[in-house]
Design brief:
272 residues, alpha+beta, four-stranded mixed beta sheet, 10 strands
């Protein structure tokens, strides 16, 4: 009897362990934790496209290691840093719960040294915690708490974050919901700690206006052609979109790169 009982106990343990492994695997799939890295040359090219051409050759470039976080692919000398986030800082806006990690976010961005010491830390911390298996809802709460407690400091001086890449896939209105969209909206962001739209006379585009700009190439209201503030507070940005002529020139320059991205994932095909 004792031998049978021992054998039965072993069988139960094996079944329990198998169930646990299957549950973890299922949770990982449901959380969207599997991020496939981009081809290295494509990732570097897309990251550098966030910068103006004259800053690219001497910029520091990072690539994402899904098992660890961001790693230096090339050390630069001009004080600018470029990378592609697969989870952006807008993820941590609003009260909606982050229930899964998406594998289709594409967020090419660059920072000068002032931004690298402040704003960029959010992206790198999020990538590292995701790589370590932090549940998505917990990650969002951690980052939001760090914002509240001023763990993340505002940039120490005026500066600039270029987002000139011809493609961006992220949240449309992250303060409100988790809807995502692929867009072609090259723009420049200046650090604007604690500056409001009232201070500068800025008007924030609505999701409907943004959709019109993305699909038709023009604003339905001319007031949105001018700078406006996003993420109002210590980590606010003053945003200025490039014009249609400049945007078309970027599209032409990066035509082959955009085609490669589109072949990799349908969600990375720009809307026509």
């Amino acid at each position: 009897m004792r031998a049978n009982q021992t054998q039965r106990l072993v069988q139960l343990i094996v079944v329990a362990l198998s169930f646990t492994v299957l549950t973890i695997a299922q949770n990982n799939r449901n959380s969207g934790t599997k991020i496939e890295p981009l081809p290295r040359d494509l990732e570097i090219q897309l990251a550098l496209s966030a910068l103006p051409p004259h800053l690219r050759d001497e910029a520091t470039v990072y690539v994402l290691n899904p098992e660890k976080g961001f790693e230096v692919a090339r050390q630069g000398t001009n004080g600018f840093h470029a990378f592609i986030a697969r989870i952006g800082d807008d993820t941590f806006r609003g009260t909606w719960p982050l229930t899964r990690y998406r594998d289709d976010i594409l967020y090419p961005i660059s920072f000068d040294d002032a931004g690298a010491k402040a704003q960029m830390r959010v992206f790198f911390d999020a990538a590292e915690m995701e790589a370590k298996g932090t549940p998505p809802e917990k990650l969002k709460k951690i980052i939001q708490e760090r914002y509240k407690t001023h763990y993340y400091k505002a940039p120490e001086r005026a500066g600039v974050s270029y987002m000139l890449a011809p493609i961006l896939r992220t949240y449309v209105s992250s303060d409100q919901n988790e809807e995502v969209e692929t867009a072609n909206i090259p723009h420049i962001m200046h650090y604007a700690p604690n500056v409001s739209n009232e201070d500068i006379g800025g008007a924030i585009p609505t999701p409907e206006h943004m959709h019109s700009f993305v699909t038709h190439g023009h604003w339905p209201d001319t007031s949105y052609q001018y700078p406006f503030v996003i993420f109002q507070g210590p980590h606010g940005y003053l945003v200025q979109f490039l014009g249609v002529t400049e945007r078309l020139a970027i599209d032409k320059e990066d035509e082959e790169m955009l085609a490669r991205l589109c072949r990799l994932k349908q969600e990375w095909c720009l809307p026509h």
